[in-house]
Amino acid sequence: MANNAYIKLVPSSIKQTISVDEVKELFHYYKEITSKTGDQVNWEYENMSFPYELKEKNEAKGKWFYLSAVQDRYFAIIVGVDSEMIRLENGEEKEQTYLQITLPEESTFADKCKANEFSKFLAKKLQGELHLFNGRIMYYNPRK
After folding, report:
1. In the CATH scheme, what is the code of domain 3-139?
2. Which of 30, 23, 65 is nearest to 45 (CA)?
3. Please, are residues 4 and 100 in contact by the beta-carbon 8 Å criterion?
4. DSSP states of 91-136
5. What's the maximum distance between 2 C-alpha atoms anywhere in the chain?
6. CA–CA separation, 34 and 44 (whole Å)
7. What 3-state DSSP class applies to 24?
8. Do residues 51 and 71 lie in contact, with contact meaning Cβ atoms separated by under 8 Å?
9. For the chain, which residues make up each domain, given as ranges?
10. pLDDT of the chain along its 144 residues, tens only?
């Protein structure tokens, strides 16, 4: 059975909506900063920190993409963007965007570790509310 984590873009997040292309840009930024870390310590850290290739199927354009493993300890991670209707404290309904990080059944423990790392990075960058694979919630958004 697939495992899911969610990053919800709450009212105090940096953005209220995000596109798949913007999420891809965040992954490219992640690769860039980890490669700079590798340069500083004189080690090819980029290959270890991001052992995936970004791939997108035609039917998934604008909805989701997946990270396909380039190393044998990993399999894949699926990343998608969607929205849901939520009820605010004052009773009105509002559309809320969220990112879904999915581990397919074939995913390895190494994929789960990387998915946790990526979801924390994305939640911190977007100041979102991270619902982890184990059901716990981490708040990266400014709270009252």
Report:
1. 3.30.310.120
2. 30
3. yes
4. S-EEEEEEEEEEE-TT--HHHHHHHHHHHHHHHHHHT-EEE-TTS-
5. 55
6. 9
7. helix
8. yes
9. 3-139
10. 689 999 999 989 999 999 999 999 999 999 888 888 767 777 676 677 889 999 999 888 889 999 999 988 999 999 999 999 988 788 889 999 999 999 999 999 999 999 999 999 999 999 999 999 999 999 998 876
